[in-house]
Amino acid sequence: RAIDGIVIQKSMDHFAKPLITLTVLALVSSIATGFRGGVFSVTFLSMVYLTGDIISRLTSDTTQVSDLISQNVNLFLRSFVKAVGIFIFMFGMSWKLSVVTIMGFPYIAVVSKLYGEYYKKLTKEVQTALAQANKVAEETISAMRTVRSFANEDQEADSYYSRLQEMFVLNKKQAVAYACFMWSSYISELALQVAILYYGGHLVVTNQMSGGTLISFVIYELELGEALESISSVYTGLMQGVGAAEKVFEYIDRKPKHILDGQQAPETFEGQVEFKNVTFAYPTRPEMDILKNVSFNLRPGQVTALVGPSGGGKSSCVCLLENFYAPQQGHVLVDGQPVNSYQHKYYHSKVALVSQEPVLFARTVQMNISYGVPEAPMEAVIRAAINGNAHDFITGLSKGYETGVGEKGAQLSGGQKQRVAIARALIRNPRILILDEATSALDSESEYIVQQALNNLMREHTVLVIAHRLSTVERADNILVIDKGCVAEQGPHAELMARGGLYCKLVQRQILGTVIDADVHNPSPAPPWKLKEGDKESAEDCSDTENEARY
Ligand SMILES: Nc1ncnc2c1ncn2[C@@H]1O[C@H](COP(=O)(O)OP(=O)(O)OP(=O)(O)O)[C@@H](O)[C@H]1O
């Protein structure tokens, strides 16, 4: 109208009115722009806040989702609203020219759809390749000493490089797809402009349209082209975000196979454990039964030792008692109730595990001991450390209980880590204590002291010990020999020795090994654990070559 006002009517009045309208619209539009920016910032800040808890696990994917979506949804919405608005104006000006414009749309839509799908697929593949590359890097860095000690740096670097190469190939495909898409959208836009000018010129020449209207139409068409262009470029980013989001939601939507929804939290918890005809296979290998119809009892005040050949299923029994998995058949009962019927937090405040290779967290010693019970007072932390024979070495550290232990406890020695882990178990005063060769990394003096502390605990608690060193289990009230997923025999040490079965053979193997060791390397001192004469004899009695080979 402004153009027609000057070019055709040649009147300032006709020109001024649309100019005022333009000014008002510009003002309103700038306010709307500010509002849009503000609303988006707030919305996406809260989105990042919501994804914060999973960000550590899925850093790159979640960051990509929130970055790409926050940047692109904003632009996409603006361009979309703008394109629709412009189109309505164009239609109001000349439906004929608008029809010419629309004719180009199906082509643009089909190309965008195909491109979007392809780009999304590539993005998912890139995410997977990146995750694999990161896995290699993470594993190598966290196991740097192992890599060094085998001088395998080059192979690890090569393996990382080959994963990056895979990603690079995918990135190149993305770049080619983007180039083709851009090329086709520019061509289609250009073709559209030529068609509009050609047909519009014809309409003006035949007096079906004023020159000013054609100019406005062309200006709108340019704006429309700009809006469509930004929609298409944003579309790439959005598809990338959607691809990454699908991966993130795959994780979020994963349902745990073993659900921790137990509700029971009784006031008294005695710690009577019963494995009742338990058959168990790991979910990753469902066809292979690791435990077969296993039944046994653990009683409060008693120490039960699990022994047996490697791979027999001892740790798997611990996993079931810790409620990490559910058995396929049979029941794991504590005080007559299935372990999964107890409330998760409650159960693990009553059942504590000290594993063979305890994992500490990159926090202070005090935080590691009070892990899971952050409200525990300092006195309780110190008491637990004293009972675990860790107090002396902790007070000798530069910052005492405030000393950081490094990633996975790497700044402590094996024995120190184990003592902190024992203190971490003792602080909760558990009713059931599971010790997986818990004293294996200690020197004989520390072991003696820790053993004393554990002995005191053992009188009131249900204790399950997994031991390879038979000296550790000699004193147990009951010994369960687990072999190939079955309870091969059970009873106290003397009874099993007299029976002359598998246990006897295991003992005999160790005694002979130790005696030979002591003779060869260190003829004078006594072996690390004391043998009674009778044991040695009975052990020799049950020697047999087939079992020699197995154990
Ligand atoms: N997460 C797992 N997924 C699949 N199979 C597993 C898993 N963990 C252990 N196994 C298999 O279960 C069997 C029993 O393993 P388990 O760790 O219970 O034996 P173990 O008696 O404790 O052995 P060790 O004395 O060597 O520690 C082994 O054959 C092992 O390969």
UniProtKB/TrEMBL annotation:
Acidic residues bias: where? Answer: 540-551
Q: Name one GO cellular component term.
A: endomembrane system
Which keywords does this chain's UniProt record carry? ATP-binding, Membrane, Nucleotide-binding, Peptide transport, Protein transport, Translocase, Transmembrane, Transmembrane helix, Transport
Main subcellular location: membrane
SUPFAM superfamilies assigned: ABC transporter transmembrane region, P-loop containing nucleoside triphosphate hydrolases
As for family, the record states: Belongs to the ABC transporter superfamily. ABCB family. MHC peptide exporter (TC 3.A.1.209) subfamily.
| The protein's name in its UniProt record | ATP-binding cassette, sub-family B (MDR/TAP), member 9
Q: Which organism is it from?
A: Sinocyclocheilus grahami
